[in-house]
Amino acid sequence: MLNSLSGRFLILTIIFVMLAEVMIFVPSVARYREDFLLNRLERAQIASLALLADDMIDTELEAELLLNAGVFNVVLRRDELRQLVLSSPMPSEVAQTFDLREATALTLIKDAMARLINPEDETIRVIGNPFRDGGLLIEITLDTRELRMAMIDYGLRILVLSAVISIVTASLLFLAVRVLLVKPIKGVVGHMQSYAKAPEDARRIIQPSARVTELRDAEKALQSLQTQLTQALKQKERLAQLGGAVARVSHDLRNILTSAQLFTDRIEMSEDPAVKRMAPKLVNSITRAVSLCESTLAFGRAEEPAPTLTLFNLAQLVSDVLDSERLAIGDFDLSLSVDVPGNLMVRADPEQLYRVVSNLVRNARQAITGTGQPGEINVAAKICDEAWCIDITDTGPGLPPKAVEHLFQPFQGGARKGGSGLGLAIAEELVRGHGGTLTLVNTDETGTAFRIRLPMGGLG
């Protein structure tokens, strides 16, 4: 109970209301004391006026008047003449004098608290203005015992009333908090627990229903989070299934390509000049295909092999990529250009870098041929800031907004219609494995440019 939100709110409410009542209690008691003394002054004035009306009042009647007024002596000043109107024996000397004519609120509060704290009975003198202009000044003496007892009684009644108000107020707030806050919060927690049991079940996603703005915002945020998580889990499951299928296909394809390699030896023995020229490229393509199948199998086991760094001629690798692309271009009006120094040596994994450049060039080629308009693809390389920089630019239509938003994320929007986005995701991962970066430099209706940056660290 005490550890719950509503329980703590109940306790804090009681404490704060009591503190507020205590702050009210002090000036209330001070005001009660002032009213008590003013009442005594008024009663004393009435008694003195009775005596002034009839000078022949006997001693017993005078004592009764003083008793009814609750005072020992009454001094009334009329027309600059100070006159002891009523008097009786005082039990003790006057201990203090209080002038109510110009007393400030702070003075009244201080005197009231002092009287509550002091338990001793004393005789005090009180000075005030006569009521209804009955003179210039009235002065009485009285005992403090009755005053203090009346103040204590009044204070206790105030405290009891404050306690009742605090309990009632706190109870109402307790119920309000339980209905408006605690119950909706428990509902959200219940939805979270239910969703945690089966996050793939879209029926368990919370539907915002709270009327409190803040809670409704929290429910909407939770709904968005659960929706994204459910979609991610479904996508993960599909990817796992796809990975299993790709692994099986790659396994069989690897065996087929391995068999194809056995026939390349006989092809290389041909005397046909065209065959002799194309045979090495065919052998290289089959070797890369076998390597790709093996890498795919490793990727399916989440074991993409680390790059094997070797020093090789980048211009030759780019030339091999573009030669393969020229076969795919055929008669389409698409030019491929190279701006790579012939002596530029790069330390990287040649097979993985081939896949990266090939993916980027193939994407550019597919984007341009998809428009049906002529275009150009350029591959350039240079040394920049202790790194090798390879730029692949094209004059295609640019990447669609969804592809830019989910760049390098598989199955989140390809660069062309029907694309899966796997090419860029694989390329980025391979470059990252080299400690480098693959970045989109720019993309618009005039074309797209990517940059591969491979650090030169470790080069002797």
Automatic annotation (TrEMBL):
<dbReference type="InterPro" id="IPR005467">
    <property type="entry name" value="His_kinase_dom"/>
</dbReference>
<dbReference type="InterPro" id="IPR003594">
    <property type="entry name" value="HATPase_dom"/>
</dbReference>
<keyword id="KW-0547">Nucleotide-binding</keyword>
<dbReference type="Pfam" id="PF00512">
    <property type="entry name" value="HisKA"/>
</dbReference>
<feature type="transmembrane region" description="Helical">
    <location>
        <begin position="158"/>
        <end position="181"/>
    </location>
</feature>
<keyword id="KW-0472">Membrane</keyword>
<keyword id="KW-0597">Phosphoprotein</keyword>
<protein>
    <recommendedName>
        <fullName>histidine kinase</fullName>
        <ecNumber>2.7.13.3</ecNumber>
    </recommendedName>
</protein>
<feature type="domain" description="Histidine kinase">
    <location>
        <begin position="248"/>
        <end position="458"/>
    </location>
</feature>
<keyword id="KW-0067">ATP-binding</keyword>
<keyword id="KW-0418">Kinase</keyword>
<dbReference type="InterPro" id="IPR003661">
    <property type="entry name" value="HisK_dim/P_dom"/>
</dbReference>
<keyword id="KW-0808">Transferase</keyword>
<dbReference type="Pfam" id="PF02518">
    <property type="entry name" value="HATPase_c"/>
</dbReference>
<feature type="coiled-coil region">
    <location>
        <begin position="215"/>
        <end position="242"/>
    </location>
</feature>
<dbReference type="InterPro" id="IPR004358">
    <property type="entry name" value="Sig_transdc_His_kin-like_C"/>
</dbReference>
<keyword id="KW-1133">Transmembrane helix</keyword>
<feature type="transmembrane region" description="Helical">
    <location>
        <begin position="6"/>
        <end position="30"/>
    </location>
</feature>
<dbReference type="InterPro" id="IPR036097">
    <property type="entry name" value="HisK_dim/P_sf"/>
</dbReference>
<keyword id="KW-0812">Transmembrane</keyword>
<keyword id="KW-0175">Coiled coil</keyword>
<dbReference type="InterPro" id="IPR036890">
    <property type="entry name" value="HATPase_C_sf"/>
</dbReference>
<keyword id="KW-0902">Two-component regulatory system</keyword>
